[in-house]
Amino acid sequence: MSIATQDDQAPTGSGQSDEPMLTYVPARAWGTRAAAVLLSLAVVYFLVSIGGNANFGWSVVGEYLFDARILSGLYLTIWLTIVTMVIGVVLGTIFAVMAMSRNIVISTVADAYIWFFRGTPVLVQLIFWYNLGALFPELSIGIPFTSWGMSVPTNTLISPITAAVLGLGLNEGAYMSEIIRSGLLSVDPGQRQAATSLGMTSRKALWRIVLPQAMPVIIPPTGNQTIGMLKTSSLVSVISLSDLLYSAQTIYSRNFQTIPLLIVACLWYLLATTILSWVQNRIERHFARSRNAST
């Protein structure tokens, strides 16, 4: 910024300083304005080149955008995202508390769960659950040391939808465990000690005192995980589950309109992630107000 000096001196005895007054004039941001203009031109050129390119098959995109098969796949994708995130949050909370336990056995089991499911690709886990019948042809349930029991063929019990829920849910639980554990650790330990000094049990102190204060730390990464799960669910197409991507693949394998059908899938993914981002923003604002009100 530039500095302009005013030569007028304050009258003697007026109580004001005899030093010259300084006026700050911000420098003109010509570089920023030029960059904004160039970026705007580049964006307009990009949109015009895409919109005017007939090879994208925009007429085919409009034809299949609301196709019943695409909408059915979108419904399954959203359903999988909700179910697996619920499983992930529940398992994440349980294993986060277990990992923070002072009991070496409990914390070791939690650490082993997190280590395994975070260390192996989710695609491998999906294929493993889908082919579980090759390892265990039958799954048996019974009371130990008694003759009572029952067995079910594994391929009957582990359907593609079950394999998808198990693979995605267990994998998400490992990631959510670390997110929730970091949120719990962000709360001052004195909060738990104060709660127990008032007669609260450890469980009640966790749910009434610690978790509400940890939520502002937990919510943002949980929202990102939810958006990531929406897109990760497309991996279930490898086990022939008719999600959004698999539905698009089924259609373009018949009419050979690969690019337009992939654009249709991308448009629905973009819409779903935009809605999830808006919901995440609203939840973050809610907990931010709660935190500001308590401080």
TrEMBL record:
Q: Gene3D superfamilies, per this entry?
A: MetI-like
Q: Which UniProt keywords apply?
A: Amino-acid transport, Cell membrane, Membrane, Transmembrane, Transmembrane helix, Transport
* Classification via Pfam families: BPD_transp_1
Residues annotated as transmembrane: 34-54, 74-100, 112-132, 258-279
Domain of life per record: Bacteria
**Coiled coil located at which positions?**
none
- Annotated ABC transmembrane type-1 domain ranges read 74-280
Query: How does it sit in the bilayer?
Result: Multi-pass membrane protein
Q: What compartments host this protein?
A: Cell inner membrane; Cell membrane
- Asked whether the keyword Membrane is assigned, the reply is yes
The entry's family comment says: Belongs to the binding-protein-dependent transport system permease family. HisMQ subfamily.
Q: What is this protein called?
A: Amino acid ABC transporter permease
What's the source species' lineage?
Answer: Bacteria, Pseudomonadati, Pseudomonadota, Alphaproteobacteria, Hyphomicrobiales
